[in-house]
Amino acid sequence: MPIEIVKALELSDADVARWTQLQHGQTRLDSPFLSPQWTLSVARAQGDKGDQVKVAIQRGPEGEALAFLPVRVRQDVAMPVGAPMCDYQALISAPGVTMDPRDLLHVLGVGRIDFCHMMADDETLGRHARGQTDSWVVETPDGYEAYAAERKAAGVGVLKDIDKKRRKAEREVGPCRFTAMSESRAAFDQLIAWKRVQLLLTHQTDLFKAPWVNKLLDDLFARRDTDFGGALYTLHLGERLAAVHFHLRGEHTIHGWLIAHNPDLERYSPGMMLFQDILKSMDGTPYMRLDLGTGDYRFKRELSNAQQRVVFGFLGSPSMPSLVRHAVYGVRSVAEALPLGRISELPGKAMRRIDLLRGLH
To answer: Which of 97, 166, 224, 329 sits in a 20 to 30 Å window from 132, CA-based?
Structure first.
């Protein structure tokens, strides 16, 4: 079946509607990062570089769209749309529909397609994985109380610990005040400020130096669409702002994205209290899933009751970009197999840092 390449900002209303329709009813695709609105938002935020955001569309005999794969094309390489801010990639398709990898590379005019958070069960690109990890998910189809009972029955005491710290914080600081879908620009700005300090102290790249990242966040903060946009959640202890989360909303999923807390109140774990409040606030709403993303953190393991496996790797044709990528993965694989502790992790960290910088620029 033929594959057509369309600039994201030139997608027709019919194709956007069809893309959204393909997401409906497929839990694995129910992520805001897989929606056409994410791709369009990134393309608009990237301004003059927005033309690099393209969508491969596979059509059936009657011209109907059967599958969509958004990418950002730079020189001879395609990468995820919105990377490093994007936490999921996948072919958005009708069940059983795949794209031919060779055809995909040819029509995109690239020698390589990189991916970093591809759904492991993706039959087009997932099989080209070089490694895997898990995204941690909290599923609450029956509401918060049923979820809390399930965690207790599993022997996980994280929610009980949060309750204890909440009582202690209210005694020593002041009453908790939770706000969902906050419109406070001051709280939003404080979140970004806290995140920048956190990145600085942990020697990580400051994502917010990239103008398009700030434009994207501003756009998502302002959006109030029912099935897509940002969601700002705040927790105050007394009059003090204790924690702020900015998440991305899909149809039935809230995806944990940017989180930070007041370092002066860290002993009360206000970020965890805020997660608990968000989960409670999902009762009676269309949201049945809080995706905590990847990262082997204790709080994610304890809060989650499901996982989504994701993979990283690349699809390449015989070309210089593919040879380079293959060599880099080879060095990384050898290093990670050696019993050298943190030294073994250095090639992987360097590779991720380079990919992050490529995405930001």
So the answer is: 97
Q: Tell me: do 154 and 278 sit in the same domain.
A: yes
**Residue 347 above 70 pLDDT?**
no
Angle, helices 211-222/185-201, rounded to nearest 10 degrees: 150
Please give the model's pTM, rounded to 2 decimal places.
0.92
In a domain, 302, yes or no: no
| Higher-pLDDT residue of 217, 2 | 217
Tokens of 133: 């990890």
The 10s digit of each residue's pLDDT in 46-73 is 999 999 999 999 999 888 899 999 999 9
Side-chain-side CA neighbours of residue 66 (13 Å): 14
Q: Please say whether the beta carbons of 159 and 149 come within 8 A.
A: no
For residue 337, pLDDT beyond 80: no
E-assigned strands of the chain? Answer: 3-7, 53-59, 65-74, 77-79, 92-93, 112-119, 129-139, 176-179, 229-237, 240-249, 253-261, 289-294, 306-316
Written as one string, the DSSP assignment of 254-321 is EEEEEEEE-GGGGGG-HHHHHHHHHHHHTTTSS--EEEEEE---HHHHHH-SEEEEEEEEEEE-SSHH
Range of the domain at 193: 141-287
CATH of the domain at 205: 3.40.630.30
Q: Are residues 41 and 176 in the same domain?
A: no
Same domain as 36, residue 119: yes
- In contact, 258 and 245? CB cutoff 8 Å: yes
Domain count along the chain? 2
